[in-house]
Amino acid sequence: MPRILMTGASGGIGTRLRQLLPPIYPDLLLSDLTPPANLSSKENFRQADLADLAAVEAICEGVDGILHFGGFSVEGPWDAILQANIIGTYNLFEAARKKGVKRVVFASSNHAVGFYPRHTKIGPDVTARPDSRYGVSKVFGEAVGALYADKHGLGVTCLRIGNFGDEPLDQRRLSIWLKPEDLVQLCEIGLEHPDIHFEVLYGASYNERAWWDNSRAYQLGYRPVGKAEDHREHAMAEQARLKPDPVSDFYQGGAFCGIEFDGDAGRVWEPK
């Protein structure tokens, strides 16, 4: 049975996956900067700062595959993004190489391509259009993943995660929702599919309003069980409570595009 390391065990995604992964990967090693508040005696946890290469190497010892959900998960000041998401992600891949890890699933984000308009459907091979410093860090992570796949033979899957949760929370999320059980499927593909070298897939459930072409994930066996339209009534009711924003409402990245925006909102960028 493979030993799987999951970073970010105390975060929102990590907390939910701690419930869903053990039946599939019983030998699951958890790590984060701080221990989960509700850590049980049955869980195996090792504290580590991603910005400390030696600490990351220590948690990668004897590991077969890594689910990398650690880091700074929202927009923030550059130094916080730099330490956790830039230096930390490089350290994770370098430690994986040194310790002979076979597979890494990297939690990228839709914010790596957030400045594409909502009326444009995009695939995984488009030019990056990050909507934030956080988005820039995810573009960096995808690039480092490609380097370590091509140069060092590491099997890497980058998941551009949409909105993770039990149901879509507004109209935008009807297009990008990711049910937790579907994320588990994508993790299994990244860790186990024999054809994985380097892949960028979208972390999204079956969303009829999807802005993303996720056909490659389906080719690899992905069969999502979550259907966003089952939650349409709730999502649209919540949307009615939100104030309109000409920038956030136009681009796929939503509010991340509007944060600190001081460009010309009347001259929005469109792909050629």
Q: Low-confidence segments, ≥5 residues, pLDDT <50?
A: none
How many beta-strand segments? 9
What shape does the CA trace take?
A: globular
- Number of self-contained structural domains: 1
Question: How much helical structure, as a percent, in the residues?
Answer: 25-40%
Q: End-to-end span in angstroms?
A: 48 Å
Q: In sequence order, what are the helices and strands, one letter per element?
A: EHEEHEHEHEEHEHEHHH
CATH topology name, in short, is Rossmann fold
CATH class, please? Alpha Beta
Structure description:
It is built from 9 helices and 9 strands. The longest helix has 21 residues, at 78-98. Helix content is 34%, strand content 15%. α3 runs parallel beside α4. α4 (133-152) links the parallel β5 and β6. It is α/β, with parallel strands linked by helices. The chain has a single domain (4-258), classed as NAD(P)-binding Rossmann-like Domain (Rossmann fold, 3-Layer(aba) Sandwich), CATH 3.40.50.720. The strands form 2 sheets. It has a 7-stranded parallel beta sheet with strand order 3-2-1-4-5-6-9, sandwiched between helices. It is globular, with a radius of gyration of 18 Å.
